[in-house]
Structures are given as C-alpha cells and as structure tokens.
Amino acid sequence: MIKNKFIILTGPIKSGKTTLLMDIFGSRDDCGGFLTPDISGKRFFYRIDEKEYFPFEIESDKEKKALNIGTYTFAMQIFDLGCSMLNNAWEMNYKCFVIDEIGKLEIANQGFAKGLNTMYSNMKSKNKMIVISVIRDYLLKEIITKYGMVNSIILDVGD
After folding, report:
1. Is-contact 11 157, C-beta < 8 A?
2. Per-residue pLDDT reduced to its tens digit, 104-156
3. CA nearest 130: which of 18, 25, 17, 44?
C-alpha cells in the first residue's frame, strides 16, 4: 500500500509548474485534484477527475460572489468546489491528488484553506494517497510550516 507522501513542486511565478503537471496528470484516470492553467490570459480551474474546465478568473461583478486579489477577481464558487474536492479526496480512492496551487490566500486562511486543513489532518489517519502540491518558491517554508508538510519531497521545476 502507498504510504502518504507530500510532493511539492516549486519554482518562481510563470516557471512552468502548472504546465508540467497538466502534461503529466491532465489525462490520467487514477488521479484527482485540480490545476489552474492560464488560457488566453485568464485563469481556469481544471478538474482532473472529470476532465472539465471552469472559469476561475472572472470579470468584477457585484452580483457574483468573488474574491479580489490585487488586480485579479476569482469566482468564490470555484474555491468552494476546490474545498469540497479536498474534503472528499479520501473517499475517492485516487492514487494521487494534485493541488494547484497553495499560496498567499491559504496562508491567510482564505481560498482553499478550509479544504487543505481537512485534507492534511486526514493524512495523519489514512494511508493511501500521494498529494502533489504546487507552491511558489518564496512561500515554501511558510506553507510547509502552516500545513505540517515537514516530510515533503520538494522538486524545483527549474531542476
């Protein structure tokens, strides 16, 4: 049986982290999770298990629930979807689960933070899945500490 493993893919902004994971996991049937590729200048949410894209970065709209981050506006329903996927990952019998990405929002207990807290606490009691997380290089230490990912295998996309 696979023991739980944290694998972290790190590197600077726009260094190819998401593209690499999309090439590896985008069409697999034994993995779950999500990738957030940039398509024509907008961020999308790609659900690996369903092979489905959802708009993630949206135009500012007062009627829609949205989260503004600098000049970007993201759909709150996508954060809710991601958290639901994280909460239920253990029930799906995936070989691996991909999280793209853990960043400043999650440090501030926003974004995917609720789902991450559930997933990482479940890893202590369940023993069946590899979790691959994307974390920008300058946030690496802080996120590892926050989510208790101290025994992670760290891979730099530049290597």
Report:
1. yes
2. 999 999 999 999 998 887 766 665 788 999 999 999 999 999 988 888 899 99
3. 25
